[in-house]
Amino acid sequence: MSEPLSLSLGQKFELERMSRAIDATVDPQALKGLAKQLLQAWQSQKAATQWVMRQQLGNPAIISPELVTDPAGARGDLDPNQNHH
Fold it and tell me: What is the model's pTM?
């Protein structure tokens, strides 16, 4: 069984830095700019992850964007519309 993903110390610091920048921003236009930067970074990371998976698996057709976007959700265990009893 593989170990769960966790953030590196550097990633945790970057997350804290960006969180503080968001908290300190009161200008709606600046917040929009930050949101767009984060959206771009997220999409770039998804593309990079897909590329790495294609390289490792050697078959680009079997990589589903949903698996890269939300691996746990693709299994259904984080689906908010699913009843958990």
Answer: 0.53
